[in-house]
Amino acid sequence: MPSLFSLYRKIFFGRKPGWDGQPLPGIQVSCDKVAISAASVSQYANVCGYSFDGEQLPMTYMHVLVFRLQALIFTHPAITFPLLGMIHLRNRITSYRQLKVDEIFRIECALAGSEETETGLTFDLFSKVWVGEELVWESVSTYLYRIEKPGKRSRPPKGDNMAWENPQQWQLSEDLGRRYAKASGDYNLIHLHPVLSKRFGFDRVLVHGMWSKARCIAAMNEEIGDRPVEVDVTFKLPLFMPADVTFCAIDQPESAGKRFELRDGRGRRPHLTGSVRYLN
Question: Could you read off the pLDDT of 265-277 as tens digits, one per residue?
Fold first, then answer.
C-alpha cells in the first residue's frame, strides 16, 4: 500500500492551482497482497464504537485502506485541485460477507465520471476488494470540490418523516476528528483544528463523514449481524465539534432493511441520512 507519509507530503506541499474546467480523466489504481494489523483495527473500532473480537472486521474498516488509494489518485498530475478541504457527499458500501483480519486482500480504486454542479465539481470513486477471485466488498464515494458561485442559497435540509422516538444520545468531543484521523489516516485539515478549518471557511472542526457512518453502523451492528448488506448514506449538514447528536433507526417493511438518521441534539436538523438493505 502507498505510504501515508509520502502521500501527505505531496498533498500538503504540492502546489495545485485548482480545477482547470476540464472533465476528470479515468484513473485506476490497485494493490495486491494487502494484510491488516489487528492493532490498527482495534484502534479504529474503539474510536467508531464497534466491538472488535480480534477476528471480524468492522464493515467500514475497508474504507481506511481504500482511502489510501483514493489519496494516491488525487496526487495524479491530471487532478489539478487539492484534496484538502474537499467535501464527502455520499457513500455506499456493499459487504458481501463478513471479512476477517487474517485474510489477504486485493484492492482496486477508480475515478470515473465528473459533473459540474451549482456548488462545484462532483465525482465518484469506485472501490472493490477481493479475496482471491471472490469480490467481498465494494463502495462508491461521491466527493465535491467546492467552487464559489453567485446565486441563491439552498434551503437547509429537513429530517425524514421517520418516527423519532427514544433516540440514542451521543456526545462528540472536540478531539474526535484528531482521534479518527490517527485511526484512519484521513488527515483532511477541516477535521483537525479550528485554525486549520477556518482556512476552508468553517468556524469549527467538522466530524469526518465516514466516522458518522461508521458510528451509525456500529449502533445497528447486532441487528445487521453477518448478513450480506448494502448501507447507503448521504451526508447532509456539516457536524461541528464538540456536539450533542441523536441517532434513530427504524425497520423497513417486510424486514427489507432499515432507515436511519443522525441529527442534532434536539432531533431536528439531519447530519446524515441512510438506509440498510439486506441482500438476502
Answer: 999 899 999 999 9
